[in-house]
């Protein structure tokens, strides 16, 4: 006789065993996907873009999160705004997908016209008693943290984003991301659930077998290991590596560059982790030879030996190096499809072919993202299989996956599921 599977989302959440992956239905069911969108992509802070996506007044770009469409723009006063892409007349979309330049936001349906601050300035044939002041565009709550744009679609955004602001403001300041330039962008659709995408990124247990390009600059010891499986020589090498980490972190921080690990991964609403990591080999950047891809360093940076400041978030991961940054945003499309949007940032005045080679800049993370897309598709196909049972996480290499799964369960239950 087949085991009866839980029919409610709450029952699925309740049977998840600590230290193990999630029950299959939490990855595959459409009702769970709708709940995820409600809880994690409407009631929590999510990354949607960058200040440098809209560098000049009038620059605008549309970002769709499920059924919600947002306009990220820079207004005439050079201020960032995030507006709902919904006309206050009868709801038509104001702007289509992608980037554009606008002086005003004009609805193509009935020409209702809005200023770039969201105020309604023109609504023909609505009568003398019509109050335009009551029909401005709906604003979305947003924060720019070191040039990264976070949005919460709830009327009651979680307050613990304050710790992310406090931690990342000083860490990101030298990179001056709000004044950087997007040198390249890719959109890759992974054939898997968004949680599998995030889980895949939060461990490097798989890296040595699947990411040869990335492993040139990544230090595999940073991502966990079973000490009992190491030879005495390898154990001494690991001990030496961690002594180097302690010394390097002390030096970086003494020089004014916050570097120690800081995380808010459980018992919280806003989920993040950051640490300055040593870059292997030449030690400069995540490229095929670990040397810098751009001669013109980011922002106010004057050094190429400051490692990789990584930042994980609920729907993003980021790497900030002396010469460039890689910013990735995850947007669920369905229970089984996930958009992974990656942007490579350089100094705003860096010139392609003069200051940087685009191929060298992008090749490592293009290869890594394609490899990860294949792994996520394999994982999703596996959780669809009737033979799937939640498996145990490595207590050496996958502790952050257990934290993510525990946080996921906790947040779903906190919102009534």
Automatic annotation (TrEMBL):
Cofactor: Fe cation
GO molecular function: 2 iron, 2 sulfur cluster binding; iron ion binding; oxidoreductase activity
Domain of life: Bacteria
InterPro entries for this protein: Rieske_2Fe-2S (IPR017941), Rieske_2Fe-2S_sf (IPR036922), Ring_hydroxy_dOase_asu_C_dom (IPR015879), Rng_hydr_dOase-A (IPR001663)
Domain Rieske: 45-151
UniProtKB keywords: 2Fe-2S, Iron, Iron-sulfur, Metal-binding, Oxidoreductase
Classification via SUPFAM superfamilies: Bet v1-like, ISP domain
Protein name: (Fe-S)-binding protein
The species this protein was found in: Pseudorhizobium pelagicum
Record lineage: Bacteria, Pseudomonadati, Pseudomonadota, Alphaproteobacteria, Hyphomicrobiales
């Amino acid at each position: 006789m087949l085991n009866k599977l839980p029919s409610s989302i709450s029952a699925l959440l309740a049977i998840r065993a600590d230290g193990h992956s999630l029950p299959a239905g939490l990855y595959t069911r459409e009702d769970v996907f709708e709940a995820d969108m409600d809880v994690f992509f409407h009631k929590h802070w999510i990354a949607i873009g960058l200040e440098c996506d809209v560098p000049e007044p009038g620059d605008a770009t549309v970002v769709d999160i499920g059924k919600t469409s947002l306009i990220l723009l820079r207004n005439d006063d050079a201020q960032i705004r995030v507006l709902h892409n919904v006309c206050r007349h009868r709801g038509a979309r104001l702007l289509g997908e992608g980037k554009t330049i606008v002086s005003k936001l004009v609805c193509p349906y009935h020409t209702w016209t809005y200023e770039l601050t969201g105020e309604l300035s023109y609504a023909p044939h609505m009568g003398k008693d019509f109050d335009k002041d009551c029909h401005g565009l709906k604003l979305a709550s947003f924060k720019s943290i070191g040039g990264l744009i976070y949005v919460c679609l709830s009327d009651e955004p979680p307050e613990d984003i304050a710790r992310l602001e406090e931690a990342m403001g000083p860490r990101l300041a030298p990179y001056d991301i709000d004044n950087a330039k997007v040198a390249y962008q890719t959109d890759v659709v992974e054939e898997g659930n968004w949680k599998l995408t995030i889980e895949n990124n939060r461990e490097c247990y798989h890296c040595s077998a699947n990411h040869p390009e990335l492993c040139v600059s990544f230090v595999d010891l940073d991502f966990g290991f079973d000490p009992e499986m190491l030879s005495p020589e390898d154990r001494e090498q690991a001990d030496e590596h961690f002594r180097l980490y302690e010394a390097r972190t002390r030096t970086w921080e003494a020089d004014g560059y916050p570097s120690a690990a800081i995380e808010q991964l459980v018992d919280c609403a806003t989920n993040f982790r950051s640490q300055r990591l040593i870059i292997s080999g030449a030690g400069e950047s995540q490229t095929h030879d670990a040397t810098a891809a751009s001669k013109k360093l980011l922002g106010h940076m004057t050094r190429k030996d400051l490692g990789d400041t990584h930042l994980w978030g609920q729907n993003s991961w980021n790497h900030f190096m002396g010469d460039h940054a890689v910013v990735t945003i995850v947007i669920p499309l369905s229970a089984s499809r996930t958009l992974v949007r990656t942007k490579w940032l350089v100094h705003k005045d860096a010139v392609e072919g003069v200051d940087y080679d685009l191929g060298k800049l992008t090749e490592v993370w293009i290869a890594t993202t394609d490899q990860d897309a294949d792994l996520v598709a394999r994982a999703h196909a596996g959780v669809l299989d009737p033979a799937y049972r939640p498996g145990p996480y490595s207590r050496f290499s996958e502790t952050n996956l257990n934290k993510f799964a525990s946080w996921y369960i906790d947040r779903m239950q906190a919102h009534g599921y």
